[in-house]
């Protein structure tokens, strides 16, 4: 799971970064909201954003939330760090969003991150789809191109992610009794440069290697079946 910390207090930000890394998370940091907007414009994706509400600079934390939700139409979970009174108009925005949680940073130390990690877990479960095949659990983040297999990031390419997501969704819809058609995979890949029928098999081969021992992908006439090992 990757996590972005947006906090202008360097010492506080570094304490949280080190604490999250110790708990196995991939952590990115920014001190200004403007930098986050630039990153999002470049296509960067995060599973969770931890955001200081009172950022210094021309863009506040609440301004960044408006950009993420309204301009980007992005529902990435956000944990809002607060340390002072929240204005009513700010509270109205935060309370109405199901993917936002408040966190009073005056009451919790970065050296004891259990409370904020529980909030991270709750929000990511809200914003992800889960599938179970045999004894293997798959969790697809709705906000980034990540698939977690038994809670570990599978580290797939964008194309591999889309193919496996299509296979899992078809498996769930048809209880594993109908293959995922090649045409369905091509449709979901859209205008991706790799969306050529003769290239799909290459990506499937790479997926098989990454899923070795966890999931079997078999070719059938016109499509692919997946099933437990």
Feature tags:
229 residues, alpha/beta, Rossmann fold, Arc Repressor Mutant, subunit A, 2 domains, five-stranded parallel β-sheet, four-stranded antiparallel β-sheet
Can you describe this structure?
- The structure is a single chain.
- The protein is α/β, with parallel strands linked by helices and 229 residues long.
- It has 2 domains: 2-126, Rossmann fold (3-Layer(aba) Sandwich), CATH 3.40.50; 128-228, Winged helix-like DNA-binding domain superfamily/Winged helix DNA-binding domain (Arc Repressor Mutant, subunit A, Orthogonal Bundle), CATH 1.10.10.
- Helices cover 40% and strands 24% of the residues.
- The chain has 8 helices and 12 strands.
- The strands form 3 sheets. It has a 5-stranded parallel beta sheet with strand order 2-1-3-4-5.
- Helix 3 (61-71) links the parallel strand 3 and strand 4 (78-82).
- It starts with a strand and ends with a strand.
- The mean pLDDT is 85.
> Main sheet, how many strands, which sense, barrel?
5 strands, parallel
Strand line-up of the largest beta sheet: 2-1-3-4-5
Radius of gyration: 20 Å
Helix share, percent: 40-55%
Order of helices and strands: EHEHEHEHEHEEEEHEHHEE
CATH-defined architecture of the largest domain: 3-Layer(aba) Sandwich
User: Uncertain spans, ≥5 residues at pLDDT below 50?
Assistant: none
End-to-end gap: 25 Å
Strand content: 15-25%
Mean pLDDT across the residues is 85
Give the CATH superfamily of the largest domain: Response regulator
- The beta-strand count equals 12
Which shape, going by the Cα principal axes? elongated
* CATH hierarchy class name of the largest domain: Alpha Beta
Number of domains: 2
Fill in the CATH topology of the largest domain: Rossmann fold
Instruction: Briefly note the structural class of the backbone.
Output: alpha/beta
**Total helical elements:** 8
């Amino acid at each position: 799971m990757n996590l972005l910390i947006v906090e202008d207090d360097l010492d506080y930000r570094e304490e949280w970064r080190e604490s999250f890394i110790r708990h196995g998370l991939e952590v990115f940091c920014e001190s200004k909201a403007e930098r986050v907007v630039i990153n999002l414009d470049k296509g960067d994706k995060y599973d969770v954003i931890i955001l200081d509400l009172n950022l210094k600079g021309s863009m506040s934390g609440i301004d960044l939330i408006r950009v993420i939700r309204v301009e980007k139409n992005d529902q990435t979970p956000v944990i809002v760090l607060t340390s002072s009174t929240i204005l009513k108009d700010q509270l109205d925005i935060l309370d109405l969003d199901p993917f936002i949680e408040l966190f009073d940073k005056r009451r919790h130390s970065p050296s004891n991150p259990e409370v904020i990690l529980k909030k991270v877990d709750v929000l990511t479960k809200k914003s992800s789809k889960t599938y179970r095949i045999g004894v293997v659990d798959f969790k697809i983040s709705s906000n980034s191109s990540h698939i977690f297999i038994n809670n570990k990031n599978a580290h797939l390419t964008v194309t591999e992610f889309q193919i496996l997501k299509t296979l899992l969704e078809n498996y769930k819809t048809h209880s594993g009794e109908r293959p995922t058609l090649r045409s369905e995979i091509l449709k979901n890949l859209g205008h991706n440069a790799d969306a050529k029928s003769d290239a799909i098999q290459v990506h499937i081969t790479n997926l098989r290697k990454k899923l070795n021992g966890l999931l079997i992908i078999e070719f059938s006439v016109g499509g692919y079946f997946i099933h437990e090992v």
